[in-house]
Amino acid sequence: xxxxxxxxxxxxxxxxxxxxxxxxxxxxxxxxxxxxxxxxxxxxxxxxxxxxxxxxxxxxxxxxxxxxxxxxxxxxxxxxxxxxxxxxxxxxxxxxxxxxxxxxxxxxxxxxxxxxxxxxxxxxxxxxx
Length: 129
Description:
Helix content is 17%, strand content 43%. It is built from two helices and six strands, in the order ααββββββ.
């Protein structure tokens, strides 16, 4: 939150100091964080966040990983996401509600996996990494 406030103040100073205003009239500047578990949706976002840990939910089971797994987003290739060092994430019940656990089931055999974009329900930045 402090980072957003700092960016907002600095950007406001720059905008206000321009001899030719970028924005005519009064304006409201809002700087927001995308959130800790931001969902990635576009090719551009996949490129920007390449190298980051992500959590993937797919429409069908992917190899031994199942439908929910995490790994490092390596990039894209012909309508596929490339995920490095993928590890399945277990899911469990807690007091009648589905609760996502970050317990990773060890899986040392798969170095990377390519998943067709059409098979992905969601891909989010991993909140713990």
